[in-house]
Structure formats: C-alpha cells, structure tokens
Specification:
Elements lengths: L25 H8 L6 E5 L6 H12 L2 E3 L5 H9 L7 E4 L7 H16 L8 E6 L10 H7 L3 E4 L5 H14 L6 H10 L4 H18 L5 H15 L2
Parallel strand pairs: 1-4, 1-5, 2-3, 3-4
Helix pairs in contact: 3-4, 4-5, 6-8
Length: 232
C-alpha cells in the first residue's frame, strides 16, 4: 500500500503552470496559460489528476481569485452579484461538492460572466470537478453552463511520465536518481506528483545532511525517520 507521508518540514512548491507535469494534458495547460477575460474553462478528472494545482496556478498566473467548494457560498454570491468587479480570473474548485447555496452562487457567476464577456468588465471563469458536466449531480441549469466554452478531461500520468518528471526534478537539483530509486517510489509511495516532488527535495537535503549518496537504502531510511517523527 502506498505510504501517505506529510513531510511537513519540506512542503511541495506552490502550484504554478510551469511546475505542472502535463503529460497528455498539454491542451488544458495551454488553455489556462492563455485564458483571456471573456473565456471559460472547465477541467475534470479523478482525484490526484491535478485539478486543484491547475486552478490555483491559473489564479497565480493571472492574479485571480480562487474559491474551493468548501468556502463561503455567500462570498461567491457576493462576487457574482456585487458592484465590485471580479478581477481578471475567478476559479471555483471541486464544484461537485458545492452545496445548494454554492450551486446557486456559481450559477449567478456564470450568468455575470456571460453578460460582461464582451465588455471591459470581462473576466475568465475556470471551474473544476470530478466528472464530465452532464454526469455531475448538480442543478440542470448549472450543468449546462459548464459546457458553454472549453471543457477538458484531465488524464492521469503514466508511470513513464512520472519517472521522467522525477528525473527532471532531480536534475534541476543536480541529482542523478538511480532507476531502482524511481521504480521504488512509483511502486510504494503516494503517486501525486507534488508529493513525489517534495520527497525528491527531501531526499536531496537528507543526503547532504547524512553525507551519503542517494541510494534506495537512504530513501528507506528517510521514510522510516519521517514515520517515527510523526509518532513522537
């Protein structure tokens, strides 16, 4: 079973469009990189595919506002109906988890997005969920609006793509990860790329602190020490 490690002292880097490992998701990444005011993008896929990474990165890239589904529905509704302009981009994450009030707020936001799309008040609207629009258990008028512009299904990275991403991450730090280290990580560890990247960073620092080369025994030693620290 994959080990779920927090590595609290070595968090992953902040999400950005540059550190998103695209794999087969290049078109979605490109659409978000060039998402101009007046456009809307809906991305969907299973947990761990990078939905939240992309939405937070798009907000950082454009100077936008990020709203998780667990956030305040009233704040989202105020944004949709208030006099204040939403800004260049608004992202609403995990819409499949929205409450009835949250769905009503997002419905109002879509309406405002469409009303001002060709004006100086235009903003980009980016949303994400775990299923295709018509498969979501949301109010029908909201599901329809999700397909008004661009829709992308996000695909999981293959093991080969993860391996290349880990090698690239290691190379950026001047490291050369042995194939058996990468194979062990992909087989036994959390498969989320942000957590895998954080572990590579941790392994680099641990190697320097212990004055030891990066090997599979060193990796297992790091993970064992991390587990011990979580229980003390």
């Amino acid at each position: 079973m994959a080990q779920q490690l927090t590595l609290d002292l070595l968090p992953p880097p902040p999400p950005s469009l540059d550190n998103f490992v695209a794999g087969r998701n290049g078109p979605a990444l490109d659409a978000l990189r060039h998402c101009a005011p007046g456009r809307a993008v809906y991305v969907w896929g299973p947990h761990g595919v990078g939905r939240s990474h992309l939405l937070q990165a798009a907000c950082h890239h454009a100077g936008g506002l990020y709203y998780p589904a667990a956030g305040s529905a009233s704040a989202l509704h105020a944004l949709a109906t208030g006099d204040t302009l939403p800004g260049p981009l608004v992202a609403v994450d995990d819409i499949h988890e929205l409450s009835a009030d949250g769905q009503a707020a997002l419905f109002a936001l879509y309406n405002r997005w469409r009303e001002v799309a060709s004006t100086r008040q235009a903003f980009a609207l980016v949303t994400a969920g775990d299923r295709a629009p018509l498969a979501l258990e949301l109010r029908e008028d909201l599901r329809t609006r999700l397909g008004w512009d661009l829709v992308f299904r996000l695909e999981q990275l293959t093991d080969e793509e993860r391996a290349r991403a880990l090698q690239s991450r290691a190379a950026d730090r001047g490291l050369d990860l042995a194939p058996e280290v990468i194979s062990w990580l992909l087989t036994h560890h959390d498969r989320d790329m942000s957590r895998l990247s954080a572990l590579v960073d941790a392994l680099d620092r641990y190697s320097l602190a212990r004055h030891r080369a990066i090997t599979l025994p060193l990796l297992k030693d790091l993970l064992a020490n991390n587990r011990n620290s979580e229980h003390t």
